Amino acid sequence: MPQKDPKTVKSELKKGELQNLYYIFGKNIPDVEKLTKQIIRAAVGDNEEFALNKLEGRYLDTSELYDMIQMMPMMSEYNCILINDYNCEKPRENMAGLRAEDLNKKLIDVLKDIPHQTIVIFNVTGFEINAKTDFKTGKSIIKDKNKKLADLAAKIGALVECPIKTENELAKEIAASVSARGALISLDRARELAEMCQSDTLTIRNEIDKLCAYVGSGEITADTLHNLVHRQSDVTFFKLADAVAAFNKKSAFEALDELMQDKDNRGAVLANITGSFIDMYRAVCARRCGKQIQDVKENFAYVWDFKVKNAFRDSSRMSVRRLRECISILRDTNIALNSGGGDEKTILEQTVTKMLMTKN
User: Rounded to whole angstroms, how far apart are CA atoms 356 and 277?
Assistant: First the structure.
């Protein structure tokens, strides 16, 4: 079967048509999570406690998965298995003595014969798949090792991409979301909000909550947007933190240059960089204590899953000692920015240089 779009899958679900294998990916993480929940609900209804098994991709045991796939459903028509963030590039948290190709082959062999009573869902929310756009079809073509798993889903089930929506599509959704909260926003202002947030749905949702809390039952005007919404950069703070973790000088300074384009919010740049490193420090400490993503999310009241997942992924390349050194450097930078009259860009460039010089 060819790659499907989320609307087609939702239409099939309404008709009661389910596939035995789904692979859901894309840059629109909220839509990936939303579609996953809709498939699960169509499969098991309110019986998730008995009929749904949730597995983390980095700890996936193919023998255990095979046994789960062969199980008969309990109190439901289907036995449903959700596997989050299985990365064929690095299938295990610890790859010592293991080859990705061998692990991926075992997994694909297990998935080739899924019985009719079982539905297996792979979704990707915590890492980015290397893909290129086919300009003829507008769909993404996966280029890395995840392609084999995605191709299998396309052949025997459903391969679904949830791409970032256009500003016009987002504008309609923004207007509807604002209206549901009792406030007003014009389509022009909604398009402007989408553009300011670089069409990032996670950021847009957060900004809508903030704007609606501010205006109450009033209207979100151009002045409201300009006063309350920080225009986002194409390069995220996560990418800068990831570049430092990987000792990638070129990517780190490219990210910083992009972030520093916003001259009115350079203090916010440091605050967000610091926040990313604190997230990673929490993640690496949690891993050492045997804690998982959900534990960190609950203990520190994170709203977004992706922040914690990014922190777990990026912190795997940094020691506790190096993270502590980086946070100390960021602390000293904050003192320097608040107490001196030095050039902010120069100070931040020196900060990134110092962090890149730290060692694991």
Answer: 13
**Cα 356–chain centre separation:** 25
Residue written as token pair 């840059």: 27
CATH 1.10.8 placement within the chain: 167-228
pLDDT tens digit sequence for 168-203: 888 999 999 999 999 999 999 999 898 777 677 777
Domain 6-161 falls in which CATH fold? Rossmann fold (3.40.50)
Residue 86 to residue 357: CA distance in whole angstroms: 32
Task: Label residue 274 exposed, middle or buried (CB < 10 Å: 0-12, 13-18, 19+).
Answer: buried
Q: Which residues pair with 121 in a beta bridge?
A: 22, 82
C-alpha angle with apex 115: 112 to 120, nearest 5 degrees? 70
Q: ∠ CA(51), CA(56), CA(60), 5° rounding? A: 95
Nearest to 240 by CA among 229, 226, 253: 253
Contact 50, 40 (CB under 8 A): no
Residues 100-122 pLDDT 10s: 999 999 999 999 989 999 999 99
pLDDT for 234 equals 42
CA neighbor of 110 nearest in space, from 152, 48, 56: 152
Helix residue spans in the chain (DSSP H): 6-14, 29-44, 48-51, 62-70, 100-111, 146-156, 167-180, 187-196, 201-215, 222-228, 237-245, 249-259, 266-288, 293-299, 305-315, 320-339, 344-357
Tokens linked to 94: 């610890």
**SS3 at position 100:** helix
- Please, what CATH class does the domain formed by 167-228 belong to? mainly alpha
CATH of segment(s) 237-357: 1.20.272.10
pTM beyond 0.70: the answer is no
Please list the residue range(s) of the chain that carry CATH number 3.40.50.300: 6-161
